[in-house]
From TrEMBL:
<feature type="binding site">
    <location>
        <position position="110"/>
    </location>
    <ligand>
        <name>carbamoyl phosphate</name>
    </ligand>
</feature>
<comment type="similarity">
    <text>Belongs to the aspartate/ornithine carbamoyltransferase superfamily. ATCase family.</text>
</comment>
<dbReference type="GO" id="GO:0006520">
    <property type="term" value="P:amino acid metabolic process"/>
</dbReference>
<dbReference type="GO" id="GO:0016597">
    <property type="term" value="F:amino acid binding"/>
</dbReference>
<feature type="binding site">
    <location>
        <position position="232"/>
    </location>
    <ligand>
        <name>L-aspartate</name>
    </ligand>
</feature>
<feature type="binding site">
    <location>
        <position position="138"/>
    </location>
    <ligand>
        <name>carbamoyl phosphate</name>
    </ligand>
</feature>
<comment type="pathway">
    <text>Pyrimidine metabolism; UMP biosynthesis via de novo pathway; (S)-dihydroorotate from bicarbonate: step 2/3.</text>
</comment>
<dbReference type="InterPro" id="IPR036901">
    <property type="entry name" value="Asp/Orn_carbamoylTrfase_sf"/>
</dbReference>
<dbReference type="Pfam" id="PF02729">
    <property type="entry name" value="OTCace_N"/>
</dbReference>
<feature type="domain" description="Aspartate/ornithine carbamoyltransferase carbamoyl-P binding">
    <location>
        <begin position="10"/>
        <end position="151"/>
    </location>
</feature>
<dbReference type="InterPro" id="IPR006131">
    <property type="entry name" value="Asp_carbamoyltransf_Asp/Orn-bd"/>
</dbReference>
<feature type="binding site">
    <location>
        <position position="171"/>
    </location>
    <ligand>
        <name>L-aspartate</name>
    </ligand>
</feature>
<dbReference type="GO" id="GO:0006207">
    <property type="term" value="P:'de novo' pyrimidine nucleobase biosynthetic process"/>
</dbReference>
<feature type="domain" description="Aspartate/ornithine carbamoyltransferase Asp/Orn-binding">
    <location>
        <begin position="157"/>
        <end position="306"/>
    </location>
</feature>
<feature type="binding site">
    <location>
        <position position="271"/>
    </location>
    <ligand>
        <name>carbamoyl phosphate</name>
    </ligand>
</feature>
<feature type="binding site">
    <location>
        <position position="272"/>
    </location>
    <ligand>
        <name>carbamoyl phosphate</name>
    </ligand>
</feature>
<dbReference type="InterPro" id="IPR002082">
    <property type="entry name" value="Asp_carbamoyltransf"/>
</dbReference>
Amino acid sequence: MTSMSFKGMDIISISDLTKDQIEEILNLANKMIPYAKGEKTTKALEGRILANLFFEPSTRTRLSFESAMIRLGGSNIGITDHQNSSVAKGETLADTIRTVECYADAIVLRHPKEGAARLAAKFSEKPVINCGDGPGQHPTQTLVDLFTMKQEQGSMKDKNVVLVGDLKYGRTVHSLVEALALFGANLTFVAPDILQIPKESVKLLEKAGISINLERNLENVIADADVLYVTRIQKERFPDQSEYEKVAGSYKVDNTVLREAKKNLTIMHPLPRVDEIAPEVDYTENAKYFKQTFNAVPVRMAILSLIIGGQV
Ligand code: CP
């Protein structure tokens, strides 16, 4: 597998990538760390333009992509408030994409509708990167998550990963479990019944021979966890707000919950959080969610340099 195989590639779903390709991205991300920190500089993507189209709110994904592009010597354009774009006049996503590809070398898209990124890729000759399509997928977040897990735990083979919270609507979870299946982790899903991991994901994992466990109670499984991946219950995705009220605040990871945890437990969260991790946990050695947040820059630098095609 050479880097040339990435050039011009869309990244819509984590299943678009092989295990070898994921490993190549993560290896390159490791080399990008000093550039992401500004300790070294590069002009690998000088003269190249990234279009960042965000039709849903974002802090980390948008800013880390912008930062990654700037650290690589390139430039950013974008739409962050679609009320100020021609979408507000009724322009279709297809026409927006056909327009933006005239102005940029790659397109980063976050959109509230599942399948929007796949549709966008059909209308674009330039590579499209899915940065969240409703409750669908968020593959580059998965690469960030895997990078962080490997930094903290080494090989993920036979490691116990406990995913807790909104496993139904959490797109980062949907992408992550597919990748963890490739790397041989054991998976435990902790959620209220109405927010459990979708049946399609369970089927896929069973087909891949992955050990899975469905739970309601975090206290029952915390002692065996190597990684605890916490997610926010996504109020905005519930069709019925009274259903949200029933499950809001179902889980809170605090130092009491962690009393039974392994000493080297890695606690992660794609963020933003609301109240599912108590601030007291931030001061423990186990809290890695802000390291995960930083890792978004080297990982996205690796992705951009591979698909746009600049050598660092
Ligand atoms: N992790 C993540 O997708 O965060 P944002 O919604 O802030 O981009």
